[in-house]
Amino acid sequence: MTDEVVKKQEGIIKGGDVDVISVELFSSHHKDSFKLGDIWKNISIFENIKKNYIEGQITITETQALLEFIPIITNEKIVIKFITPSASEPYVFVGHLHEVPTRFQISQGQQIAVLGFISPEFIKNQKVKFSKAYNKTLISDMVKDIYEQYVVGVTGKTLTIIPTTEQTSRVVPTMSPFKAINWLTKWSVSPLYRDGASYVFFENQTGYYYGPIEALVDSSINKKPAATYTREIVLAQEGKQKEVGRAYYSISDMQAFTPKYLPGVVSGAYAAKAKTHDIVLRQIGESTRNYFQSYSTTKHLESSDENTMIHNDLSLGGYSDSFVQFIPDHYLAYSDQPSSRTTSTALTRISQLNQFFSKKLNITVPGDSDRTVGEIVQLKIPSASPALIETLGDADKYLSGRYLITGLRHSLEKSGEENKTTHSLYMELSSDSYASPLPEQTVHHWT
Fold first, then answer.
1. Do 287 and 394 sit in the same domain of this protein?
2. Is 238 exposed, middle or buried, given 0-12, 13-18 or 19+ CB atoms closer than 10 A?
3. Same domain? 233 vs 377
4. Considering the domain boundaries, does residue 374 fall inside one?
5. CA distance 406 to 429
6. Mean pLDDT over residues 110-128, rounded?
7. C-alpha distances in Å from residue 32, one per residue of 24, 58, 82, 120, 357
8. Which residues 6+ apart lie within 8 Å of 3 measured at CB?
9. Helical residues (DSSP H) of 127-197, grouped into ranges
10. Cα–Cα distance between 401 and 438 in angstroms, integer?
11. How many domains does the structure of the chain reveal?
12. CATH code assigned at 205
């Protein structure tokens, strides 16, 4: 940790405290940057595993007609740096100002403006459409080539790639770079997780990630969660930079979402069928997938033991007609061309992605600039019923456990006469399994 950061952290002793090191706006009309430290009121930074970019908004209140002097034409650069007690290094985000959704006067000579910013790599991505053919190439190498040729160089963010298996041939049909990379995920399979097809492409504060969700949740790789949160008062956790105040890892608000039954059925989470048509060989084929029979072949947040599955109605695996996918499949007409894997991975991918986003919690905790999407956290949720504590223990057996951070919002806000800044963190957590097994189904209501 730098001396500057150590100095900045002096006096930070409790959860929610944050040191905003700098907020700077760079205009194409001026050599020097504009310091927004005195006029910003709220900063929100959003990350989501389903998106290929980070975005955010900053609200400013000013009386010096600064926005008119700059002026703001939505092509500026903004750099935000802040740090919270648990972090060893500051969170640094470099954004491209791309919109001003709100701007109005509240009194004579005073105005409020909301400035929207987004990752500059995404802006560059939107400016490019390309077509390109790849012959007998790993899909991971295709992704690397696309990123390095069309995206990299804006802010120097790195792309972490989990290599794929099987060389294949693809023609990218006039797409933007990010759309092409997203398109390639459906054929991507890792040598470490050959039975799965859960590749995703997203940005977090460390850069870009292209790889399977299984690599993120594999307990043999990520043995220790990045943080443990609870609804009880706690002190600082092992491995943190310094001792911080009470309640730093406490959950102040929580919403729990049980896996939705009907959407899971009709989206192919539990059972699905693929019908293929080879227009070259004039052949048709059919395959099915049963969630309950294939559960142990893929990696899960808790374990691959069948006792951790998200449903106990085993009969759901037999309703393959609840979701039918039609897949053109003519690549096998060429003897030197390996299978496209579309048939073998389509149903697996659909089921896996549905599983990972089925069991959700939204929690609010004191700000932590270390947290980012793609990390694993542990939750310890006390049982809501005191009467059950004696028989079931003091933890909620179905809500407690390991979760993947799939979305978050860093919220920095000034309040009070002294404009004290507080940092709140809103996280969307997802899981595809339970830490404690669901009870066996013994009563069948709808047979």
1. no
2. exposed
3. yes
4. yes
5. 6
6. 94
7. 10, 20, 21, 20, 45
8. none
9. 139-150, 177-184
10. 14
11. 4
12. 3.55.50
Q: At which of 92, 123, 154 does a domain end?
A: 123
Write out the two tokens for 145: 């080539």
Could you say which DSSP state residue 381 is in? P
Residue 140 lies in a domain: yes
Quote the domain boundaries for residue 299.
Answer: 261-355
Whether the CB-CB separation of 407 and 373 falls below 8 Å is answered with yes
Q: Are residues 232 and 135 in the same domain?
A: no
Digit-coded pLDDT (tens) for 382-426: 887 665 555 545 788 899 999 999 999 999 999 877 789 999 999
Q: What is the mean pLDDT of the chain?
A: 87
Selection from 432, 370, 437, 361 nearest residue 212 by Cα:
432
Are 295 and 421 found together in one domain?
no
Mark whether 243 and 379 lie in a shared domain: yes
pTM of the model: 0.90
Tell which phi-psi region holds residue 41, choosing left (phi > 0), alpha (psi between -120 and 50) or beta. Answer: alpha
The radius of gyration computed from the CA coordinates of the chain, to the nearest angstrom, equals 25
Q: Are residues 114 and 10 in the same domain?
A: yes
Choosing from 98, 123, 148, the residue where a domain stops is 123
The pLDDT confidence band at residue 308, using thresholds 50, 70 and 90, is very high
Domain co-membership, 171 together with 35: no
Do strands 130-137 and 110-118 pair parallel, antiparallel, or not at all (unpaired)? unpaired
CB 89 within 8 A of CB 83: yes
Rounded-to-integer distance, Cα 34 and Cα 155, Å: 20
Tell whether 441 is covered by a domain: no
Please name which of 21, 121, 428 lies closest in space to residue 256, comparing C-alpha atoms: 428
Question: Residue 269 and residue 350: Cα distance in Å, rounded?
Answer: 7
For position 13, what pLDDT does the model report?
60
Is residue 338 over pLDDT 70?
no
